[in-house]
UniProtKB/TrEMBL annotation:
Keyword Acetylation: no
Gene3D superfamilies assigned: P-loop containing nucleotide triphosphate hydrolases
Pfam families for the chain: DEAD, Helicase_C
Record GO biological process: response to cold
Protein name listed in UniProt: ATP-dependent RNA helicase CshA
Residue positions of motif Q motif: 2-30
Organism (species): Paenibacillus montanisoli
EC number: 3.6.4.13
Record PANTHER family: DEAD-BOX ATP-DEPENDENT RNA HELICASE 47, MITOCHONDRIAL, DEAD-BOX ATP-DEPENDENT RNA HELICASE CSHA
Family per similarity comment: Belongs to the DEAD box helicase family.
Biased composition (Gly residues): 459-487
Keywords, comma-separated and alphabetical: ATP-binding, Cytoplasm, Helicase, Hydrolase, Nucleotide-binding
Domain Helicase ATP-binding: 33-203
Length: 527
């Protein structure tokens, strides 16, 4: 891989990269940075956790003159948390250069954003709805924007942001540079690319396997009613450093996080019905480790980068294979190891196999952890804590009593009693979760709009690594054997899905909430 010095970046940008601890570029960075530096439009695709943010962030901060005092760059993200995170990463990259970047997202007091805009940031990172709000108020002007980046572009489309993105981009000068990035590129992204990008370079680093290879994936077959016990045994057995548990609906997330708290786990929930303050608090606690289990809807599936996430657990299977890839991609990032477990009810087995096929990865079936394994796991953690304390903390002041006890009692009995006390008993509270319906892989008719290729597998790169020109990749991709069987991601139909967009503009979008059961939640994202 290339070192960052080889890209001919400004010394101040290089210095910031060094400070971030990046020694060499990741594959997507070494391909994308030189192209982005030429000013060309780009579609960038690479696995989760492989540094796409810096792949667009580095060339962006390199190109903006520090004397600039207008908004010259716009980054759009599907969720508020992601806007904040990307803004922070851009902030780090521009630490020495001193550019100003500002996140703009729904749920935060608009007056505060207006005051921050007066400081003349050059880079705005925002969610589409709130951006439009500012544009309409004329507190954000896009006349001078030269670079636009759509992070997780496919998700923004999927959430129904096409119209908003179109309105926003119509206000940006034509001679701009536009770049799209995501780990997945469903066929319909081409429509967006054709409309908004000019002769884009396709930069794609997708090996045969879609999900990051550093993630150990497994599933457990459980009945809906067994899920909570399975979860607590799994948490006890594995003792994750940090875990994200995905639930299908907001109600599920609320019930599950409360149940985990009652059982004595340090958990909290994240979904789109919480106030922005609550959302910020939960994310802060998770990032600083004051909670170690985050229970979330798909609002947390995309882009979030929290170091130390060792486990992702799909308490409920996601509706589509892309969501599976993004969810499990919250672990195993930047080359680290991670573990992803999924609970699958008997009626969802077909759906699990569908996910395996589309993601081209065999997922191992594992047995439900036994009570004995759970207990053993907890005891192991206690033993590790004791050994850690012995090595890293001063225990001198406890030695006198230890010697005294050892003179009087059997050492094994003593230590066993201490381990028992430290391990603690699981609080025996009754947990009753409202059952969720199983997800089923529906039979569907070929989709007219996409020639029946909605899940052709090209969403994940189709095995083609690099292409050039707008049609260089995945064209005419085979359906990979998913024929007519399969899958319906169409939320408007069949009442199965309410994307639960938490738009504070209050503008309902036809087809996104219609017919859905109110409790079915989707990304619950932004705006
Ligand atoms: N060259 C590098 N060397 C080491 N670490 C890096 C490098 N580039 C990025 N990282 C780190 O890797 C992690 C993942 O990066 P990032 O969030 O950009 O991934 P991503 O490809 O956007 O993933 P996702 O598809 O989930 O959004 C971050 O913590 C980032 O700081
Ligand atoms: Mg990302």
């Amino acid at each position: 891989m290339k070192t960052f010095a080889e890209f001919g970046l400004e010394p101040k940008v290089l210095q910031a990269i060094t400070e971030l601890g990046f020694e060499e570029s990741t594959p997507i960075q070494s391909k994308a940075i030189p192209i982005a530096l030429t000013g060309s439009d780009m579609i960038g695709q690479a696995q989760t956790g492989t540094g796409k943010t810096a792949a667009f962030g580095i060339p962006l901060v390199n190109k903006i003159p520090v004397t600039e005092d207008r908004i010259v760059a716009l980054i759009m993200t599907p969720t508020r948390e992601l806007a904040i995170q990307v803004s922070e990463e851009i902030g780090k990259l521009t630490r020495y250069k001193g550019l100003r970047s500002l996140p703009i997202y729904g749920g935060q007091e608009i007056g505060r954003q207006i005051r921050a805009l007066k400081k003349r940031p050059q880079i705005i990172i925002g969610t589409p709805g709130r951006l439009l709000d500012h544009i309409n108020r004329k507190t954000i002007k896009l006349d001078d924007v030269q670079t636009v980046i759509l992070d997780e572009a496919d998700e923004m489309l999927d959430m129904g942001f096409m119209e908003d993105i179109t309105s926003i981009l119509s206000l940006v000068p034509e001679n701009r540079q536009t770049m799209l990035f995501s780990a997945t590129m469903p066929p319909n992204i081409r429509k967006l690319a054709d409309q908004f990008l000019k002769n884009p370079e396709h930069v794609s680093v997708i090996p045969t396997q879609v999900s990051a290879p550093t993630i150990d994936q497994a599933y457990i077959e459980v009945h809906e009613r067994q899920k909570f016990d399975a979860l607590s045994r799994l948490l006890d057995m594995e003792s994750p450093e940090l875990a994200i548990i995905f639930g299908r609906t907001k109600r599920r997330v609320d019930e599950l996080s409360e149940a985990l708290q009652k059982r004595g786990y340090s958990a909290d929930g994240l979904h789109g019905d919480l106030s922005q303050n609550q959302r910020d608090n939960v994310m802060r606690k998770f990032r600083d480790g004051s909670i170690d289990v985050l229970v979330a809807t798909d609002v947390a599936a995309r882009g979030l980068d929290v170091s130390g996430v060792s486990h992702v657990i799909n308490f409920d299977l996601p509706q589509d294979p892309e969501s599976y890839v993004h969810r499990i991609g919250r672990t195993g990032r930047a080359g680290k190891e991670g573990t992803a477990w999924s609970f699958v009810t008997p009626r969802e087995l077909d759906h699990m196999h569908f996910i395996e096929k589309v993601t081209r990865h065999k997922i191992a079936k594992k047995p439900l952890p036994s009570i004995a394994e759970a207990i053993e796991g907890k005891q192991r953690v206690t033993a590790e804590r004791i050994l850690d304390a012995m090595e890293s903390e001063s225990v001198n002041e406890f030695k006198a009593i230890a010697i005294q006890l050892l003179e009087q009692y059997d050492s094994v009995n003593l230590l066993a009693a201490a381990i028992k006390l430290i391990t603690g008993e699981k609080k025996d509270v009754n947990i009753d979760l409202t059952p969720e319906d199983p997800i089923r892989a529906k039979k569907r008719r070929p989709d007219v709009r996409t020639n029946g290729r909605r899940f052709s597998g090209s969403s994940f790169g189709g095995g083609n690594r690099t292409g050039s020109g707008p049609r260089g990749r995945g064209e005419g991709g085979s359906r990979g054997g998913y024929g007519g069987g399969g899958y319906n991601r169409d939320r408007g139909s069949s009442g199965s899905y309410n994307r639960d967009r938490d738009r504070d503009g209050g503008k309902g979008r036809g087809g996104y909430s219609g017919g859905g059961e109110a409790r079915r939640s989707r990304p619950s994202t932004d705006e």
